[in-house]
Amino acid sequence: MRAAVLHEVGAPLSIESGLRGADLAPSQVRLRVDASGVCHSDLSVANGSTPMPLPMILGHEAVGTVIEVGRDVGKVRVGDRVITSFTPACGACWFCVRDMTNLCESIPTAERSVAVRAHTPSGDGLHAMAGLGAFADELIAEETMAVPVRSDRPAAQLALIGCGVATGVGAALNTARVAPGATVAVFGCGGVGQAIVQGARIAGAARIIAVDPVPLKRQTAHALGATESLDPSTGDVPARLVELTDGRGVDYAFEAAGVPQLILDSFNATRRGGAVVVVGMHPATATVTFPAAALFASERKILGCMYGSTQVRRDFPRLVSLADAGRLDLESLVSREIQLNEVNDAFRAMQAGEVIRSVIV
Ligand SMILES: [Zn+2]
Ligand SMILES: [Zn+2]
Predict the structure, then answer these.
(1) What are the sequence ranges of the domains in the chain?
(2) Contact 107, 142 (CB under 8 A)
(3) Which ligand minimizes its atom distance to the CA of 99?
(4) pLDDT per residue over 168-192, tens digit each?
(5) What does the pLDDT look like over 3-23, one tens digit per residue?
(6) What number does CATH give the domain 3-162+309-360?
(7) Measured in angstroms, how far is the CA atom of residue 146 from the centroid of ligand 2?
């Protein structure tokens, strides 16, 4: 098999062939990867802001076809088209039985991140990001992380459901439960932010204000449902948002850039009793400080948002249905289809603000 491997923080990924996939455990499946999105979280591992054991095959947002199943696997079959999830959703733990499968405790994140899922020709083990390692032509996943979907949509579109779209649409529909008629601000309009804009639109928000310094991202947000946009390089965004809402602040502010200061900006842009939704993946050591009296007296809510509170077996098919009905635009999120060996350029394009998503096909 081929894969894009991170050997050293800050170094380009190396494209390696002749790798040998690990043997399947009884609970695992092997997929042929049909498409894999390049997400900001991959970059966070590559640049060290999210430390991970190395060497590691990056990638965690994929669609594939099941080519082999372990002996205990019962929910998926060879030939199934599946979208990958990076939560195992065992279905049996305290969290899973209470509809919080995104917080499933059956396989701790740390354990998944150190999983060795392939070997080099000389026998060195390669870890797999999020227990997936989707920048490859094959990957191994726990059965519970491979969610079957029935869809003829292009692979590049379906792949995005596995991380960015589930996270963003889920943040609006599941975590925040945006109310019809609401005013929403979205800080950061990359792949996740564009999906939040769409989730807010699907929920019936009246005003959706996209905040991003990159013109392409503001324009895309308008095409996907934003009613207004702000360029943070031209002024004080929280003050502008308060001004735009008759001095009240927005009902919901979503932080989707993974910048700690923007959590505070979101707080300052939100009305009394409103909600700040922390969607971005922040550096592991970052902290944020809130004014204690305002937190108490203004009754604003701070909502953590892990994977859009997504229940993958319920929500992946729901997202496919919304796309098929023309209510969720996946096509506009795919800026470029690339080959595996172009992944480093995809990181560059991401940082340059040239793309919403590059997808390896
Ligand atoms: Zn991601
Ligand atoms: Zn569980």
Answers:
(1) 3-162+309-360, 168-306
(2) yes
(3) 2
(4) 999 999 999 999 999 999 999 999 9
(5) 999 999 999 999 999 999 999
(6) 3.90.180.10
(7) 15
